[in-house]
Design a protein that fits this description.
This protein is α+β, with helices and mostly antiparallel strands. It is built from 10 helices and 15 strands. The longest helix is centred in the last third of the chain and has 15 residues, at 299-313. Its cofactor is Mg(2+).
Length: 314
Protein backbone atom coordinates (compact mmCIF):
# COMPACT_ATOMS: atom_id res chain seq x y z
CA UNK A 1 0.00 0.00 0.00
CA UNK A 2 1.40 3.38 -1.03
CA UNK A 3 2.06 5.79 1.85
CA UNK A 4 0.39 9.19 1.55
CA UNK A 5 2.95 11.87 0.80
CA UNK A 6 3.05 14.51 3.50
CA UNK A 7 2.28 18.09 2.46
CA UNK A 8 4.56 20.96 3.48
CA UNK A 9 3.87 24.68 3.02
CA UNK A 10 7.12 26.69 2.86
CA UNK A 11 6.68 30.43 3.28
CA UNK A 12 9.61 32.82 3.41
CA UNK A 13 10.39 36.54 3.56
CA UNK A 14 12.78 37.22 0.63
CA UNK A 15 13.89 40.55 2.15
CA UNK A 16 14.62 39.40 5.70
CA UNK A 17 18.13 39.91 7.08
CA UNK A 18 20.61 40.01 4.23
CA UNK A 19 18.30 38.03 1.93
CA UNK A 20 20.62 35.00 2.15
CA UNK A 21 17.65 32.62 2.04
CA UNK A 22 17.35 33.25 -1.72
CA UNK A 23 20.63 31.43 -2.32
CA UNK A 24 19.53 28.36 -0.33
CA UNK A 25 15.95 27.86 -1.50
CA UNK A 26 16.69 25.11 -4.02
CA UNK A 27 18.85 23.15 -1.57
CA UNK A 28 16.28 23.43 1.21
CA UNK A 29 13.39 22.34 -1.00
CA UNK A 30 15.44 19.38 -2.23
CA UNK A 31 16.03 18.31 1.39
CA UNK A 32 12.28 18.38 2.12
CA UNK A 33 11.43 16.44 -1.05
CA UNK A 34 14.04 13.80 -0.22
CA UNK A 35 12.27 13.39 3.13
CA UNK A 36 8.98 12.61 1.37
CA UNK A 37 7.28 15.98 1.53
CA UNK A 38 5.23 17.51 -1.26
CA UNK A 39 6.37 21.12 -1.05
CA UNK A 40 4.46 24.30 -1.87
CA UNK A 41 6.55 27.49 -1.78
CA UNK A 42 5.32 31.04 -1.21
CA UNK A 43 7.56 34.15 -0.93
CA UNK A 44 5.78 36.86 1.08
CA UNK A 45 4.59 39.80 -1.00
CA UNK A 46 3.68 42.40 1.59
CA UNK A 47 3.19 43.03 5.28
CA UNK A 48 0.90 40.44 6.96
CA UNK A 49 1.00 38.23 3.87
CA UNK A 50 2.40 35.36 5.97
CA UNK A 51 -0.38 35.82 8.54
CA UNK A 52 -3.14 35.62 5.94
CA UNK A 53 -1.58 32.73 4.02
CA UNK A 54 -1.14 30.62 7.16
CA UNK A 55 -4.66 31.41 8.33
CA UNK A 56 -6.06 30.33 4.94
CA UNK A 57 -3.80 27.34 4.22
CA UNK A 58 -3.01 25.70 7.58
CA UNK A 59 -5.79 23.13 7.24
CA UNK A 60 -4.33 21.82 3.98
CA UNK A 61 -0.84 20.89 5.21
CA UNK A 62 0.92 18.54 7.62
CA UNK A 63 3.70 21.02 8.31
CA UNK A 64 4.30 24.74 7.83
CA UNK A 65 7.92 25.82 7.43
CA UNK A 66 8.75 29.51 7.46
CA UNK A 67 11.85 31.63 7.09
CA UNK A 68 12.35 35.25 8.08
CA UNK A 69 13.00 37.35 11.15
CA UNK A 70 10.99 37.76 14.33
CA UNK A 71 8.34 39.78 12.47
CA UNK A 72 7.72 36.80 10.19
CA UNK A 73 7.52 34.55 13.26
CA UNK A 74 4.81 36.80 14.68
CA UNK A 75 2.78 36.70 11.47
CA UNK A 76 2.96 32.91 11.16
CA UNK A 77 2.13 32.31 14.81
CA UNK A 78 -0.73 34.85 14.71
CA UNK A 79 -2.19 33.23 11.61
CA UNK A 80 -1.93 29.79 13.17
CA UNK A 81 -3.56 30.88 16.44
CA UNK A 82 -6.60 32.11 14.50
CA UNK A 83 -7.25 28.64 13.05
CA UNK A 84 -8.79 25.48 14.44
CA UNK A 85 -6.13 23.16 13.01
CA UNK A 86 -2.49 23.79 13.90
CA UNK A 87 0.08 21.73 12.00
CA UNK A 88 3.64 21.37 13.27
CA UNK A 89 5.91 24.34 12.51
CA UNK A 90 9.48 24.42 11.26
CA UNK A 91 11.56 27.59 11.41
CA UNK A 92 14.61 28.66 9.40
CA UNK A 93 15.78 31.95 10.96
CA UNK A 94 17.00 34.55 8.47
CA UNK A 95 16.41 37.85 10.27
CA UNK A 96 18.81 40.28 11.93
CA UNK A 97 18.35 39.19 15.56
CA UNK A 98 16.20 35.99 15.65
CA UNK A 99 15.30 35.96 19.36
CA UNK A 100 12.63 33.29 18.92
CA UNK A 101 15.12 30.90 17.33
CA UNK A 102 17.75 31.57 20.00
CA UNK A 103 15.32 30.63 22.78
CA UNK A 104 14.39 27.38 21.03
CA UNK A 105 18.01 26.46 20.18
CA UNK A 106 17.30 26.62 16.46
CA UNK A 107 20.61 27.22 14.63
CA UNK A 108 21.16 30.41 12.65
CA UNK A 109 22.85 28.42 9.89
CA UNK A 110 20.18 27.93 7.22
CA UNK A 111 21.25 24.40 6.27
CA UNK A 112 21.42 23.22 9.88
CA UNK A 113 18.02 24.74 10.65
CA UNK A 114 16.50 22.97 7.63
CA UNK A 115 17.99 19.63 8.70
CA UNK A 116 16.63 20.17 12.21
CA UNK A 117 13.13 20.42 10.74
CA UNK A 118 13.31 16.90 9.29
CA UNK A 119 15.51 15.36 11.99
CA UNK A 120 14.40 17.10 15.20
CA UNK A 121 11.46 16.64 17.57
CA UNK A 122 8.37 18.82 18.07
CA UNK A 123 8.26 21.04 21.15
CA UNK A 124 5.03 22.42 22.62
CA UNK A 125 5.58 26.15 23.09
CA UNK A 126 3.58 28.82 24.93
CA UNK A 127 2.15 31.74 22.95
CA UNK A 128 1.03 35.12 24.26
CA UNK A 129 -2.38 36.65 23.65
CA UNK A 130 -2.52 40.46 23.56
CA UNK A 131 -6.09 41.77 23.37
CA UNK A 132 -7.14 40.33 19.99
CA UNK A 133 -3.54 39.81 18.79
CA UNK A 134 -0.73 37.36 19.55
CA UNK A 135 3.01 37.34 20.20
CA UNK A 136 5.54 34.53 20.15
CA UNK A 137 8.08 35.79 22.68
CA UNK A 138 7.74 39.44 23.76
CA UNK A 139 5.29 42.29 24.24
CA UNK A 140 6.93 45.54 25.29
CA UNK A 141 6.40 49.26 25.80
CA UNK A 142 8.55 52.28 26.58
CA UNK A 143 12.12 53.31 25.88
CA UNK A 144 13.91 51.35 23.13
CA UNK A 145 10.89 49.19 22.29
CA UNK A 146 10.22 50.93 18.98
CA UNK A 147 13.84 50.52 17.86
CA UNK A 148 13.21 47.35 15.86
CA UNK A 149 10.42 48.71 13.68
CA UNK A 150 11.88 52.23 13.33
CA UNK A 151 15.30 51.00 12.18
CA UNK A 152 15.37 50.94 8.34
CA UNK A 153 15.77 47.43 6.85
CA UNK A 154 18.85 48.40 4.82
CA UNK A 155 20.60 49.54 8.02
CA UNK A 156 19.72 46.21 9.66
CA UNK A 157 21.16 44.33 6.70
CA UNK A 158 24.43 46.27 6.72
CA UNK A 159 25.04 46.79 10.43
CA UNK A 160 23.19 43.91 12.10
CA UNK A 161 22.64 44.37 15.86
CA UNK A 162 24.70 47.59 15.79
CA UNK A 163 21.87 49.23 13.88
CA UNK A 164 19.51 48.65 16.82
CA UNK A 165 22.05 50.03 19.30
CA UNK A 166 22.58 53.21 17.27
CA UNK A 167 18.86 53.77 16.87
CA UNK A 168 18.22 53.08 20.56
CA UNK A 169 20.94 55.50 21.75
CA UNK A 170 18.90 58.38 20.35
CA UNK A 171 16.13 57.71 22.87
CA UNK A 172 18.23 58.24 25.98
CA UNK A 173 17.63 61.96 25.53
CA UNK A 174 13.85 61.64 25.29
CA UNK A 175 12.65 59.57 28.24
CA UNK A 176 8.89 59.29 28.70
CA UNK A 177 7.12 57.70 31.63
CA UNK A 178 3.61 56.26 31.89
CA UNK A 179 1.43 56.12 35.00
CA UNK A 180 0.07 52.57 34.99
CA UNK A 181 -2.02 50.19 37.03
CA UNK A 182 -0.93 46.57 36.63
CA UNK A 183 -3.21 43.77 37.86
CA UNK A 184 -2.01 40.17 38.18
CA UNK A 185 -2.69 37.21 40.48
CA UNK A 186 -5.01 39.24 42.77
CA UNK A 187 -2.27 41.88 43.11
CA UNK A 188 -2.35 45.52 42.02
CA UNK A 189 0.76 47.54 41.20
CA UNK A 190 0.54 51.28 40.49
CA UNK A 191 3.53 53.43 39.53
CA UNK A 192 5.26 55.43 36.79
CA UNK A 193 7.20 53.25 34.33
CA UNK A 194 9.53 53.97 31.43
CA UNK A 195 9.83 50.42 30.16
CA UNK A 196 8.08 47.08 30.36
CA UNK A 197 8.63 43.56 29.03
CA UNK A 198 6.28 40.61 29.06
CA UNK A 199 8.29 37.70 27.70
CA UNK A 200 8.40 34.00 27.01
CA UNK A 201 12.03 33.92 25.93
CA UNK A 202 15.62 33.55 27.06
CA UNK A 203 16.72 36.26 24.62
CA UNK A 204 15.35 39.71 23.79
CA UNK A 205 17.06 42.04 21.35
CA UNK A 206 19.72 39.41 20.74
CA UNK A 207 21.00 39.64 24.30
CA UNK A 208 20.72 36.49 26.39
CA UNK A 209 20.89 35.89 30.12
CA UNK A 210 19.37 38.97 31.72
CA UNK A 211 15.85 37.50 31.90
CA UNK A 212 16.63 35.78 35.16
CA UNK A 213 16.81 32.16 36.26
CA UNK A 214 14.51 29.27 35.59
CA UNK A 215 12.97 30.53 32.34
CA UNK A 216 10.81 27.86 30.67
CA UNK A 217 8.99 28.21 27.36
CA UNK A 218 6.19 25.75 28.15
CA UNK A 219 5.21 26.47 31.76
CA UNK A 220 2.19 28.70 31.08
CA UNK A 221 3.81 31.76 32.65
CA UNK A 222 5.36 34.99 31.41
CA UNK A 223 8.42 36.67 32.87
CA UNK A 224 7.45 40.31 33.50
CA UNK A 225 9.90 43.19 34.02
CA UNK A 226 8.87 46.78 34.69
CA UNK A 227 11.34 49.65 35.08
CA UNK A 228 10.22 52.58 37.21
CA UNK A 229 10.77 56.16 36.07
CA UNK A 230 14.02 57.64 37.46
CA UNK A 231 13.69 60.95 39.28
CA UNK A 232 17.16 62.19 38.36
CA UNK A 233 20.27 61.27 36.29
CA UNK A 234 21.82 59.39 39.21
CA UNK A 235 18.84 57.03 39.44
CA UNK A 236 18.99 56.55 35.67
CA UNK A 237 22.63 55.55 35.96
CA UNK A 238 21.77 53.04 38.68
CA UNK A 239 19.13 51.47 36.41
CA UNK A 240 21.52 51.27 33.45
CA UNK A 241 24.26 49.74 35.61
CA UNK A 242 21.85 47.14 37.00
CA UNK A 243 20.79 46.11 33.49
CA UNK A 244 24.35 45.91 32.20
CA UNK A 245 25.39 43.77 35.18
CA UNK A 246 22.24 41.60 34.84
CA UNK A 247 21.22 42.43 38.39
CA UNK A 248 17.69 43.26 39.57
CA UNK A 249 17.60 46.43 41.66
CA UNK A 250 14.24 46.12 43.42
CA UNK A 251 14.10 49.87 44.06
CA UNK A 252 13.76 50.55 40.36
CA UNK A 253 13.02 47.25 38.59
CA UNK A 254 9.96 45.14 39.39
CA UNK A 255 9.93 41.52 38.22
CA UNK A 256 7.37 38.75 38.61
CA UNK A 257 5.80 35.80 36.80
CA UNK A 258 2.19 35.57 35.74
CA UNK A 259 -0.07 33.61 33.41
CA UNK A 260 -2.19 36.67 32.71
CA UNK A 261 -2.22 40.36 33.53
CA UNK A 262 -4.08 43.56 32.78
CA UNK A 263 -2.38 46.94 32.32
CA UNK A 264 -4.27 50.24 32.33
CA UNK A 265 -2.87 53.70 31.58
CA UNK A 266 -4.59 57.10 31.43
CA UNK A 267 -2.99 57.78 28.02
CA UNK A 268 -2.34 55.66 24.95
CA UNK A 269 0.83 53.59 25.11
CA UNK A 270 2.56 52.23 22.01
CA UNK A 271 3.42 48.53 22.21
CA UNK A 272 5.64 46.26 20.17
CA UNK A 273 4.86 42.59 19.63
CA UNK A 274 7.89 40.50 18.64
CA UNK A 275 9.73 43.64 17.54
CA UNK A 276 6.92 44.97 15.32
CA UNK A 277 4.49 47.79 16.07
CA UNK A 278 1.51 46.28 17.87
CA UNK A 279 -0.72 49.34 18.25
CA UNK A 280 -1.43 51.99 20.90
CA UNK A 281 -3.77 51.31 23.81
CA UNK A 282 -4.95 52.65 27.16
CA UNK A 283 -5.81 49.14 28.34
CA UNK A 284 -4.35 45.74 27.45
CA UNK A 285 -5.18 42.20 28.57
CA UNK A 286 -2.35 39.69 28.19
CA UNK A 287 -2.85 35.93 28.49
CA UNK A 288 -0.51 32.96 28.22
CA UNK A 289 -1.78 30.22 25.89
CA UNK A 290 0.12 27.30 27.36
CA UNK A 291 1.72 24.90 24.85
CA UNK A 292 -0.39 26.34 22.04
CA UNK A 293 1.88 25.48 19.10
CA UNK A 294 4.29 22.67 18.18
CA UNK A 295 7.61 23.56 16.57
CA UNK A 296 10.57 21.40 15.55
CA UNK A 297 13.61 21.79 17.82
CA UNK A 298 16.75 20.00 18.97
CA UNK A 299 15.48 17.63 21.70
CA UNK A 300 18.86 17.25 23.41
CA UNK A 301 19.42 21.00 23.74
CA UNK A 302 15.82 21.56 24.90
CA UNK A 303 16.22 18.89 27.60
CA UNK A 304 19.51 20.46 28.70
CA UNK A 305 17.80 23.86 28.84
CA UNK A 306 14.94 22.43 30.92
CA UNK A 307 17.34 20.77 33.36
CA UNK A 308 19.29 24.01 33.68
CA UNK A 309 16.10 25.96 34.39
CA UNK A 310 14.99 23.47 37.04
CA UNK A 311 18.40 23.50 38.74
CA UNK A 312 18.35 27.31 38.83
CA UNK A 313 14.90 27.30 40.42
CA UNK A 314 16.07 24.74 42.97
Amino acid sequence: METRQKKLFFIYNPHSGKAQIKNKISEIIDLFVKNHYEVTVHPTQEREDALHMVEQKSGEYDMIVFSGGDGTVNEVVSGLMKTGRRPVLGYIPSGTVNDFAASLHIPRDLRKAAHLIVEGMPFDCDIGGFNDKYFSYVAAFGIFTDVAYQTPQHFKNILGKTAYVLEGAKQLYNLKSYHMTVCYQDKVLEDDFIFGLITNSTSVGGFKGYRGKGVKLDDGEFEVSLIKAPKNPIEMQIIISALLQKEINQDFITTFRASELKIVCDEEVSWTLDGEFGGSYTEVSIQNHCRAIRIMTDPIKMIESLMEAESEEG
